[in-house]
Amino acid sequence: MCLIGSLGDVSVTSRRRTTIRNCIKCCLFDHSRRKQQHSRCFHHSPHQVQVSFKSVTMISFSFLRLILLFCLVSSSFSSSSSPPSNSTAANQTLRPQEELRKLKLIRQELQKINKPAVKTIQSSDGDTIDCVSTHHQPAFDHPLLQGHKPMDPPEIPKGNSKDDNESYEDSQLWSLSGESCPEGTIPIRRTTEQDMLRASSIRRFGRKIRSVRRDSTSNGHEHAVGYVIGKQYYGAKASINVWSPRVTSQYEFSLSQIWVIAGSFTHDLNTIEAGWQISPELYGDTYPRFFTYWTSDAYRTTGCYNLLCSGFVQTNRRIAIGAAISPRSSYKGGQFDISLLIWKDPKHGHWWLQFGSGALVGYWPASLFTHLRQHGSMVQFGGEIVNTRPGGSHTLTQMGSGHFSGEGFGKASYFRNLQMVDWDNTLIPVSNLKILADHPNCYDIRGGTNRVWGNYFYYGGPGKNPRCP
Predict the structure, then answer these.
(1) Residues 6 or more apart from 320 whose CB is under 8 A from it?
(2) Is there a single domain that holds both residue 63 and residue 158?
(3) Do 51 and 125 have their domain in common?
(4) What 3-state DSSP class applies to 2?
(5) Max Cα separation, the chain?
(6) The last residue of a domain, from among 39, 57, 81
(7) Higher confidence at residue 97 or residue 467?
(8) Strands across the sheet with 128-133, in order?
(9) Which of 18, 195, 265, 415 has the greatest number of beta carbons closer than 10 A?
(10) Which residue has the higher pLDDT, 62 or 370?
(11) CA distance 238 to 429
């Protein structure tokens, strides 16, 4: 407004320098005392302030830029300090209060999740990995686990073979820096304010949508899975092909995992889950990441992903749950998979997780569960996506490699060497495997058996296509 007042008339005046000087004073005065306006700046008539274009051009460009800067800043502060209407004033009052309340809640949650670090490692993908004392990890905040110490390694299931071609230490991006966590600590991916701000709800941060069923089309969850049911299951093992499928919405995900399940799908479902997932909402990117999950009440109030709540006890200092997996498979190119084994320790009853060739990640204490304190009644292997139906049509989010099962090796994603743990803590081949794709025109599944891969299946798909509108 100052610049307009001083240059509003382009006729000649001998007071141009005085006018410009007063304008600068006005702008400075208005910047420091925003609710007052200098009369020499805002109340000149065209006859009182007349500056010729020729005279103005004599002023250096740098001097004019200085004037403009002061005036723009002054104008901005003046407009922001002018009294708004009642409704606007109310909104402006409420919004800062609401934002402050939200920020306070986020910081309180971050204090619970992020524990003091003995050492910090920066990953090439942008993650910060904190090396946290094993005894200070989030698990021991759980009322049932307070005062506990990590358990000693359990008895490994009989018949558990190691894959000599797999090295878990080279399977995560953060570890490629050559840095590692010291003895007595575990690596935890640091949760940030940005992570929590992406969440649809602070209260539900790190949790799945409630009432998810294996065979349900509700909540937008779609599956292509192999499963066994009807017996007592004490664990499961499989090698899972890792890809980077396209996920087209922040609130969608694509994952491939093993589920160990007990209870009903309505209110008392117990699940233990592990695999890889892409979740822009949870991680802020589209890297495939190693993850875990658990619930004891059908995803209502218990459980979470990774270490975002108390429960899972981590014992490994070289594997970070929630960290990006590397390398990944490529279409018609190299194939990469990870081996996961979940089993119930026959001595103490806890459910342990192994990643790769014999690396124990940690365990879910038996006390977290109701039905899974005894055994599982169902095991699933396969893929899951969330479909938010953008624009009223099926999502383009991919499952697995993004290609249908019929394309086979090097093109479709797979699970191989499917095994179960029986009552005698022995790994045995899966029998009576059933397959299910609840939207087969969008994502499908095809099983088989051979000498090298044992029980296996290909699965996945592109999502929206001419047969899946």
Answers:
(1) 127, 129, 172, 174, 175, 187, 188, 189, 290
(2) no
(3) no
(4) helix
(5) 104
(6) 81
(7) 467
(8) 117-122, 128-133, 185-189
(9) 415
(10) 370
(11) 10
Residues 166 and 63 in one domain: no
* Pair 417, 455: CB distance under 8 Å: yes
In sequence order, what DSSP letters do the residues of 117-186 get, joined into one string?
EEEEEE-TTS-EEEEEEGGGSGGGGSTTTTT--PPPP-PPPBT----TT--GGGSBGGGGGS--PPTTEE
Q: Which of 155, 222, 384, 407 is catalytic?
A: 384
How far is the C-alpha of 139 from the C-alpha of 131, rounded, in Å? 15
How many residues belong to the chain? Answer: 469
- Active-site residue 273, yes or no? yes
How many domains, in total, are found in the chain?
Answer: 2
For residue 208, count CB atoms less than 10 angstroms from its CB and return exposed for 0-12, middle for 13-18, buried for 19 or more: buried
Parallel, antiparallel or unpaired: strands 128-133 and 185-189: antiparallel
Active site includes 384?
Answer: yes
Any alpha helices (H) in 310-358, and if so which ranges?
A: none
The CA radius of gyration of the chain, in Å to the nearest whole number, is 31
The answer to whether residues 142 and 66 belong to one domain is: no
Give CA separation, 268 vs 212, 297, 351, 370, in Å.
12, 4, 18, 8
Query: Which one of 60, 81, 102 terminates a domain?
Result: 81
Task: Decide: 311 and 359 in contact? Cβ < 8 Å.
Answer: no
Instruction: Give the pLDDT confidence score for residue 168 in this predicted structure.
Output: 56
Looking at per-residue confidence, does 45 or 144 come out higher? 144
Residue with tokens 């840095």: 179
Partner residues linked to 78 by β-bridges: none
Phi-psi region of 53 (alpha: psi -120 to 50; beta: other; left: phi over 0): alpha
**H/E run at residue 53:** helix 53-57
Nearest alpha-carbon partner for 125 in 287, 330, 328, 255: 287
Residue 352: φ, ψ to 5°:
-95, 155
> From CA 369, how far away is CA 385, in angstroms rounded?
26
pTM metric for this prediction: 0.78
DSSP 65-123: HHHHHHHHHHHHHHHHHSPPPHHHHHHHHHHHHHHHHHHHHHHHHHHHHSPPEEEEEE-
406 by Cβ neighbours in 10 Å (0-12 / 13-18 / 19+) ranks as exposed
Q: Which two tokens stand for residue 10?
A: 């382009």
* Domain enclosing residue 7, as ranges: 2-81
What is the residue whose two structure tokens read 């899951």?
384
Catalytic, out of 155, 273, 281, 407: 273
Going by the DSSP 8-state scheme, the letter that residue 399 receives in this structure is B
pLDDT one-digit tens code per residue, 135-181: 999 999 999 998 888 999 999 999 987 654 455 556 899 998 889 99
